[in-house]
Specification:
Length: 326
Amino acid sequence: MSQHADIVLIGGGHNGLACGAYLARAGMKVTVLEASETPGGCIYTEDLPDGKGRLELGAYEHGGIRGSGVAADLELETKYGLSFHERDEILFSPCDDGTGLCFWNSLDKTVEGLAETVGREEAERYRAFSKWSTAAMGVLFQAEEGPPPTLRALAALADATLGAEGQRLIQALLAPATALTEAAFTDDRLRGPLDHWAAHSQQPPQAPGTGAGALFLAASHGSPAVRPVGGSRGTVDALVRCLEENGGTLICSAAAEKVEISNGRATAVIAAGERYEAGRAVISAIDARRLFLGLIERDSLPASLVSFIASRLLQRSSWVSSSLNR
């Protein structure tokens, strides 16, 4: 027997939960399927033994959910129990040589601290990179409303906003994050945290197209770091409450096994032996490789799409291998 919903959504990470919450608030009957025993995806807080504290195993900086307006739209803070700590300390990055780099809300304070470790010249390079990153991210924020722009439209927006620096932004978006940091800095200790933040996209920073990730940390100055009270799971818990109180359903330990296709349209998902029929749409919040190469029959997909995803997978494997062998 099938279970029915308007929307069947694969993946109960924070993106899947937010999407499901928006749709449930719009009156859709939504079922979110999560493979793990608990929701959250890359947001996970573990309690240490004997009450020694909590350990964040995934994303810990949640300023984006507030800055993007999602927290306000979904009333996560006002209605669903999400509470944030605001901190002037953005990041502390310990280094192998025993030194450490501090990144603060204040760019000036950050630069002064960096100068003591990496030298004045390198620290001033960071100041210049931060100012450019902030301007570049401003262009990307302008493009957030509505459908994603074409590369041509984004290039025109970058030129209009940044002038001669517009082309630099487009080049950055197409490049690996490591290419940007290697061009901007000489000290590996400074490149490391920037590359690390770029890897939050779940792509290796050596991969083409990850360049925007190298801008995130440097563009973060000017607003406090935002972290949920009680650990990162606070964000997940609030999203689940929003989803469920608006009529949505979250089912954990329900790994998707197959997406059924009928007349070119996804119509149902098989998960943990159950069939979940979608009256309106199946939405995926998991990666394209698992979706298209693992859950959908190959003959239901255009051969060009399968070939493209497979080739990207081979490229990614080669990037990871070359990184490990450096």
